[in-house]
Specification:
mainly beta, four-stranded antiparallel beta sheet, 8 strands, 1 helix, 124 residues
Length: 124
């Protein structure tokens, strides 16, 4: 969950989703799409990403995918080990900028990687 995404006034949000199933502990490689569903002011229809292969990153700008939007976005991915980053700034990051890690919500499932410590999610 990206708890704050905005494209209003001078502000825009960059979002990235990484498919981290490619790792040194022999996790089976996975790929799939993510459905990004916005909730809030001027919420458009959900956006479905192109296929995100293991070890790659999908990125977008709110100005291109959610123009005029302010609210939060849930990303539901067809693969495990999706992680994200968001960056909000005024146009050109001249005066104001901040970045954050979105929450990973696993639905209560235990998805520990073989050989990795049980700390995959920050779910609640």
């Amino acid at each position: 969950m990206f708890p704050y995404v905005v494209n209003q006034g001078p502000f825009d949000t960059g979002m990235a989703i990484s498919n981290t199933s490619s790792d040194p502990v022999a996790t089976p490689l996975q790929s799939g799409t993510c459905t990004l569903t916005p909730y809030g002011t001027n919420a458009p229809d959900p956006v479905v990403t192109s296929t995100v292969a293991a070890g790659t990153v999908y990125s977008l700008l709110a100005s291109a995918s959610f123009p005029g939007f302010a609210g939060y976005v849930l990303a539901l991915c067809d693969f495990q080990y999706a992680h994200g980053f968001a960056f909000i700034s005024d146009l050109g990051a001249r005066n104001l900028a901040m970045g954050y890690l979105p929450l990973v919500i696993t639905g209560g499932a235990d998805i520990n990687r073989s050989g990795a410590p049980p700390a995959e999610s920050a779910s609640h």
